[in-house]
Design goal:
There is one protein chain. By secondary structure, this protein is mostly helical. It is 76% helix and 0% strand. Helix 1 (3-52) runs antiparallel to helix 2 and helix 4 (97-129) packs antiparallel against helix 6. The model is unreliable at 3-7 (pLDDT under 50).
Amino acid sequence: MSAPETSRAAGVGTTNRIAAFRDRYGRFLEWVVSALMLILFFEVTLGVVFRAIGASLIWYDEIASVLLAWLTFYGAALASVKRAHIGCPELVDAMPWPARRIVNIIAQLLVIAFFVLLGGVGVAIMPVLATDALVSVPEVPMSIVQSVIPVSSVLIVIAELLQLVELIRGKEPLETPGLSLSEGLH
């Protein structure tokens, strides 16, 4: 094999490894989100049943709020892996591929910078929250509840870095992953 063929073969192998990692990572996040959905479902159902029989659980509203927040943050990480966030890519998609690539790289860098900042602030507030706890379940510290912010930020940054690697490689995509908002409405 010549040097260019070896380089090309190595690039394909790396691309396949990244795609395989993205698939495993996406499945992991699907399990996390599914588990949170099931836990939230059972927790709310339990709360409704107890309320119906006149023995309301004092903790179920607060725990349901926490679970919903966690589901939202971890769901955002899953959406990042699947490239499923709502967007209006029509203007960017109308650009020629080199300009589209540059705009997408800049957008990816901005998203990554935002979530690095959010994760950093999330880590910085953890010691402040260490002395606070949930009102209805004082055994659960607020630092555990709010840990979703830095953890999900890291998960989103990983997903966005995977996309950034694909954009930097600069291969024109055969099709855009995910659906635009207008395509999803047909």
